[in-house]
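Hey, I'm writing a tutorial for new members on how sequence and structure tokens pair up, and I'd like a real worked example in the thread rather than a made-up one. If someone can provide the structure for the chain below, I'll link this post from the tutorial.
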Amino acid sequence: MTKIISLLSIFLFTYLSSCEENKLENQESIEGTWIFKEFFLGDAIMLGCGWEAKDVRSMTLKIEKDGDQLKISGSAPVNNYFGNFDLLSFDKTTSQGKVKVGPIGSTKMAGPEPVMQCETMFLQMLQEAGDIGFSDSGELQIGRFRTAESNPRDGGTYMVFEKAKLD
């Protein structure tokens, strides 16, 4: 009986250690500055803020360690934002995981209505994100991914980012 308990203890310790190590490896791979590329909206792609929004600044997502936690900050179309970011799990075989984002705070400047609508969508999608993943080309995807229960035409709603060249 003690041999069984010992073996189970060793197995459990090894399993839990490997899970924590896996999480840390992937935290490091998502850290850095990411440049927004596009919104994926179910079955359509919206580049930038759409044709109505003019003179929109580059949107960014910076993920960095702050002690034991990860924090996010960056530029939305008009304002700067900041918040908490927790990588809950990550599967290296599928390159997908679960996240919890927020709360998100931001500066309170105003801009043209189409640009403010884009900013609201950007910050809302980020705040409500539950999924994270990497495409085959290394792009970061964050939002709500398609599930087995999803409508066949619903590919999820998420944002796509490219790693900044300076990081």
